[in-house]
Amino acid sequence: MSGWKARRFWTRATVAEVVGGFSVRLDDRPVRTPAKAPLVVPTAAMAQAIASEWQAQEKTVDPATMPVTRAANAAVDKVGPQRAEVAGMLAAYADADLTCYRAATPAALVERQASAWDPLLDWAARRYGARLIPVEGVVHAAQPRRSLERLAVPVHRMTAFELTGFHDLVCLSGSLIIALAATNRLFPLSDLWQRSRIDEIWQEEQWGVDEDAAAAAASKRRAFLDGYAFYAMSEE
Hints:
alpha+beta
């Protein structure tokens, strides 16, 4: 939706049930995606969230204030046509998962990483029968093929809309395991986000907070929460 601008022309944004799901109407005009496809979403909750975003617009439409609309557009225009490829790309994160790459020193950081990440790896082993192996350093170490195959199964089962939200959970955390823990509601989202930032938080404690980095982290956190909200709204 980059560069997309429009002036408000409607009085009321409403939800309508249609074949295949729900749509949003601006007065009598159905909302379409940037690629001009009908914007049909899987749940009434998602449609209502989109309608609320449109209703909140003032004179000029600001896509930056419309995260659910943006994500729904991406699900229809981008993810849907290449769902299998997107699922494969996200599942591949397991072979270089953040939770598997550990510091050798100092001991306090080693302990903090283990405390945050070992429970997640243990949970994945129980939940999916998929054990990932932690390693020291940042050099890639291949994970067991069977574990990767098992972790890919739930990802490939997701709909295009679920994958759209899941994409942000994986990419922003750097971890398929953290993203799966979020969708399984293993820990609160704020807790999982903190677990994804163990290394960054450690660096801040040693060297102080960089304002630009902190602002970027806050933006990513909001996007992480938005990604989960979209995933949750996608579940029928």
